[in-house]
Automatic annotation (TrEMBL):
GO molecular function (one): O-methyltransferase activity
GO biological process, one term: methylation
SUPFAM superfamilies: S-adenosyl-L-methionine-dependent methyltransferases, Winged helix' DNA-binding domain
Name of this chain's protein: S-adenosyl-L-methionine-dependent methyltransferase
Pfam family, one: Methyltransf_2
Species for this entry: Crucibulum laeve
Keyword list, A-Z: Methyltransferase, S-adenosyl-L-methionine, Transferase
Cited InterPro entries: COMT-like, COMT_C, COMT_dimerisation, SAM-dependent_MTases_sf, WH-like_DNA-bd_sf, WH_DNA-bd_sf
Domain named O-methyltransferase C-terminal: residues: 254-426
Gene3D superfamilies for this protein: Vaccinia Virus protein VP39 (3.40.50.150), Winged helix-like DNA-binding domain superfamily/Winged helix DNA-binding domain (1.10.10.10)
Residue ranges annotated for the O-methyltransferase dimerisation domain, each copy included: 84-154
């Protein structure tokens, strides 16, 4: 079923409701709608609103959210994680899979029998999510999947990344205030002293934990994270680097080393699109074993058969990657670590580089929220009256910045911060590639 006319109707609802809001504000003792920059209280802030005004505000909120959910890619919307505990429940108990058996809808009593959950509680959880346009209540207490919830089927990697965010990330995040208040841990930049360590009582890093030595739960989370990163990459359109970066410049037989590439989501895409490239996937032993034995034989067997990919374990803090590659590609690696560790990683890569080598770092590149003159900005700013960084339109990178704080005591970075890291490792900044939601920072040898 298409959306012909629906988008225009939503826009009309927003426009008409906005006129109602403006009319009510004009009749108040402060006859204007306050700017987001206005910190002075407005009489409406703490008063009981007129029913017409309240309905108009709710119409704007609901129509804007529905308009965004309608036009955006489903994965894009889903990984802007909302209602964390509810999302965790439906993914953990595979409720989208259950609902797939009855496309017309399933009553909460039947969902309760299949899952073993209390039907009234599961109904309340589904109703909240349906109110955020994830699932649909087709009749009283009868729910079905929709364009968003179908992304949470257990065979979709987005389900795995949703569980990562709503499980260990959410449970760690609630300890952020406590961690910041700790005299020792609060100012620390150590990846051993963050909310994640406080939650798990695990003394090393998140990635050591994911190796799962002696802990089946940690091993399960690590494997889930590896799969989930495929869903994350799809949702944020990380694959734009495949088509928008000029890989042809590397030449026939060019060698790309995917450093810290997990199970190799990007490498697999490169293998499919550029069969003339040679690929080297390097990560910790557990992920390399998972990639070589489970993922690539299923998803990209031809690259193995044609000897176009090598799987090499690495500890990039203490070892250099394979020498003399044409490109050393790092996606979402630098943001995992504090500055000193990033410099170590980049220094080891520098030691492996040949004269023709380049380093490609694909990550979020943060913009500040204050407007400057166009000449001062390294990015095109959003048109006024939007925030120059697009505000909620690009909120995911700022959410992830806080997640990095919680899980690894690390951060997302600005262009200038990337340049400083590269220079400290002896690399020369070459270019920023504006590629999709993420950017690519390119370095070469001086």
């Amino acid at each position: 079923m298409g959306t012909d006319g629906q988008l225009s109707s939503l826009v009309d609802l927003i426009a008409n409701a906005t006129k109602v809001v403006e009319a009510h504000y004009q009749k108040s003792s402060k006859p204007f709608v306050p700017s987001l920059d206005d910190i002075e209280p407005h009489p409406f802030d703490n008063s009981v609103l007129d029913k017409e005004l309240r309905n108009a505000i709710q119409t704007i909120e609901g129509a804007c959210a529905q308009l965004a959910a309608t036009v955006a890619r489903p994965g894009h919307t889903l990984v802007n994680v909302f209602e964390t505990s509810c999302l965790n429940v439906v993914a953990t108990f595979k409720i989208p899979d259950i609902l797939e058996e009855k496309p017309a809808g399933m009553h909460i009593s039947e969902i309760g029998k299949v899952t073993g959950l209390d039907e009234r509680k599961i109904g309340r959880i589904l109703r909240l999510l349906a109110s955020k346009h994830c699932f649909r209540e087709v009749s009283k207490n009868v729910f079905t999947n929709n364009r968003l919830s179908i992304q949470l089927l257990s065979n979709n990697p987005i389900s795995s990344i949703s569980l990562h965010f709503t499980d260990e990330c959410a449970k760690s995040g609630v300890l952020l205030s406590e961690t910041l208040a700790d005299p020792e841990w609060g100012p620390s930049r150590s990846p051993y002293q963050c909310p994640f360590n406080r939650y798990t009582k695990y003394p090393k890093t998140l990635f050591d934990y994911y190796e799962g030595i002696g802990s089946p739960e940690a091993a399960m989370r690590g494997a889930r994270f590896g799969i989930g990163m495929v869903g994350w990459g799809n949702a944020i359109e990380a694959g734009a680097v495949i088509s928008e970066f000029p890989w042809a410049e590397l030449g026939e037989g060019g060698v790309v080393c995917d450093v810290g590439g997990g199970i190799g989501n990007i490498s697999m895409q490169l293998a499919h699109k550029y069969p003339w490239l040679k690929l080297i996937l390097q990560d910790l032993p557990e992920r390399i074993q998972q990639a070589r034995n489970e993922i690539w034989p299923k998803e990209c067997p031809l690259a193995i058969q044609e000897d176009r990919v090598q799987f090499k374990p690495i500890d990039f803090f203490n070892e250099s990657p394979v020498k003399d590659c044409d490109a050393y590609y790092l996606k979402n690696i630098i943001h995992d670590w504090p500055d000193a560790d990033c410099i170590r990683i980049l220094s080891h890569i520098k030691n492996a580089m040949g004269p023709h080598s380049r380093v490609l770092i694909q990550e979020y590149i943060l913009q500040y929220a204050n407007r400057v003159t166009d000449g001062e900005s390294k990015f095109q700013q959003a048109p006024e009256p939007l925030l120059p960084n697009y505000g909620a339109g690009r909120i995911r990178q700022y959410n992830l910045d806080i997640d990095m704080m919680n899980m690894l005591n690390s951060e997302e970075r600005t262009v200038d911060e990337f340049i400083k890291l590269g220079e400290a490792a002896g690399l020369h900044f070459t270019k920023v590639w504006d590629i999709g939601e993420l950017g690519v920072i390119e370095f070469r040898l001086p």
